[in-house]
Amino acid sequence: MDRILLPASFSHPLSTSSRSTDQGKEKEQEPPPPVSVSWPEAARPYAMLARLDKPIGTWLLAWPCMWSITIAAMPGKLPDLKMLALFGCGAVLLRGAGCTVNDLLDRDIDNKVERTKSRPFASGALTPSQGVAFLGAQLLLGLGILLQLNNFSRVLGASSLLLVFSYPLMKRFTFWPQAYLGLTFNWGALLGWAAIRGSLDPAIILPLYTAGICWTLVYDTIYAHQDKEDDLKVGVKSTALRFGDSTKQWISAFGAASIGSLALSGYNAELAWPYYPLLTAAAAHLAWQISTVDLSDRADCNRKYGPLH
């Protein structure tokens, strides 16, 4: 088998022989996706397309919304439970719609990447026309949720679709698709506050949004290290390839920026003192994740990516 030529910074962790062994172990240890047994057969490809078997991405969308809604609550009051529920449902739908768009645009790439070749379009389980119909259904349900919000929030929420639809193309043009994903996945930090207050407070919301973007750069760079060899073969870009052996230094800086931005947002919102010990604990956990992840081990990247949420 021909050896794949990689940049010098990747020559050791991506040696062909060790990777083949690791892939074999992964295949042996990989459990069947829960959706394969918990959904009717006809619904399984759609559930997989919306990543209902992998809820981590839904939490990624939901957390910034929940942070924002909670901070927007009046002092001494609990966050609006109706809004938390609406945004939770919205996160499921928007994440599913985003994955549908991503898989439609990437179907010719996904069948060349080990981790993604079983996705519904790449494997032939669904046709593009079925995917477009499913996308329309998800967006229609999402519109129903958006109409429950105030007018300012409706406009703000609808504007996020530009990011959702354009994100899958970014890895073709820039080594920073993870930054664009941060803009997309953390839009809820803006929308959650707007849904409660009817406007935006830049002193509170911009640091919160920045914190989410930097956090996304940490976890999605770790995630991208799973695919770096396949990405080189098919010609797509990522921060994992951009940072190379300097990845830990880069994501440490982004992690520090995320925690600092959260502290600034909390300070400007005049949050009570318990916020800061909790933030310190989160910082310690994030530091542990970054310091211990083995970026040359796909399985460890996947393990360390998950607990970041």
Automatic annotation (TrEMBL):
Catalyzes the prenylation of para-hydroxybenzoate (PHB) with an all-trans polyprenyl group. Mediates the second step in the final reaction sequence of coenzyme Q (CoQ) biosynthesis, which is the condensation of the polyisoprenoid side chain with PHB, generating the first membrane-bound Q intermediate. The chain crosses the membrane at residues 56-78, 84-105, 125-146, 179-196, 202-223. One of its GO terms (cellular component) is mitochondrial inner membrane. It comes from Aegilops tauschii (Tausch's goatgrass). GO terms for biological process: isoprenoid biosynthetic process; ubiquinone biosynthetic process. Residues 1-39 are annotated as: Disordered. GO terms for molecular function: 4-hydroxybenzoate geranyltransferase activity; 4-hydroxybenzoate polyprenyltransferase activity. It comes from the Eukaryota. The lineage of its organism: Eukaryota, Viridiplantae, Streptophyta, Embryophyta, Tracheophyta. The keyword Transferase applies. Belongs to the UbiA prenyltransferase family. Pfam families: UbiA (PF01040). It is found in: Membrane; Mitochondrion inner membrane. Pathway: Cofactor biosynthesis; ubiquinone biosynthesis. Residues 12-21 have a biased composition (Polar residues). It catalyses: 4-hydroxybenzoate + (2E)-geranyl diphosphate = 3-geranyl-4-hydroxybenzoate + diphosphate; an all-trans-polyprenyl diphosphate + 4-hydroxybenzoate = a 4-hydroxy-3-(all-trans-polyprenyl)benzoate + diphosphate. NCBIfam families: ubiA_proteo. InterPro entries: HB_polyprenyltransferase-like, Prenyltransferase, UbiA_prenyltransferase, UbiA_prenylTrfase_CS, UbiA_sf. This is 4-hydroxybenzoate polyprenyltransferase, mitochondrial. HAMAP family: UbiA. Its cofactor is Mg(2+). It is a multi-pass membrane protein. Keywords: Isoprene biosynthesis, Membrane, Mitochondrion, Mitochondrion inner membrane, Transferase, Transmembrane, Transmembrane helix, Ubiquinone biosynthesis. Its EC number is 2.5.1.39.
